[in-house]
Structure of Trans-aconitate methyltransferase:
Amino acid sequence: MWDPTQYTRFRDERKRPFFELLSRVEVDAPTQVADLGCGTGDLTRVLAERWPGAVVCGVDSSVEMVEEARRRPSPEGVRFEVGDLAGWEPPAPLEVLVSNAALHWVPDHAALMGRLVAKLAPSAVLAFQVPANFEAASHRLVDEVRRLPRFAPKLGAGRARPVETLERYESLLAGLGMTVDAWETTYLHLLPGEDAVLQWLLGTTLRPVLAALGAEEGRAFVEELGPRLRQAYPAHARGTPFLFTRRFVVARRGN
């Protein structure tokens, strides 16, 4: 379902939140680190560079992404696995568990937080960021097109939005014995190229939609969506302005 080349088309915009998240992770010398939703592994390798003494495991549910990650050179101690983000079990308790823009694909975050905390060692850190732009025009237009009679039988009205509020994440994690630092940031991206917002969505949100439709109907879906996105997000000489909100959580487990 996933296309590594399409996903990395806006590499800088997708990487920036990871570094902002990582800047708030204060762990000196962990030995077990995991990256859930590692994609092509570029940011997993950053974790290995920061903590060269650690075993760093990148996990992704996409075979295509993991194959691409394994093809690229990695520091010693880095490995990549195909696995379910909620159900994957580390070989030893983790001192750092990071997830960058992946957990929104997993339903029921109330239960998910408990499963993630259970993977942690005492004093370990869970750090994740998730998109919080599901009410943006981009997502509303995708749902508008998926409800059209041509596509609705295969797609339905839209998928659930599993992302919780910052207050809810703090409450869930505090109840599990974690000390929580949580914040939200809205980025203004100036995306280059033609149909830039459509190209952004083709790397993420539209992947399961197109996989469900197949090639011919997928092309028809994109042809319906493209003009709507161009109207909602007019391009300028500097690029196409695209507001994108993300939620960040860094939580430390007690001793």
In short: The chain has a mean pLDDT of 92. The domain at 4-253 is CATH 3.40.50.150 (Rossmann fold).
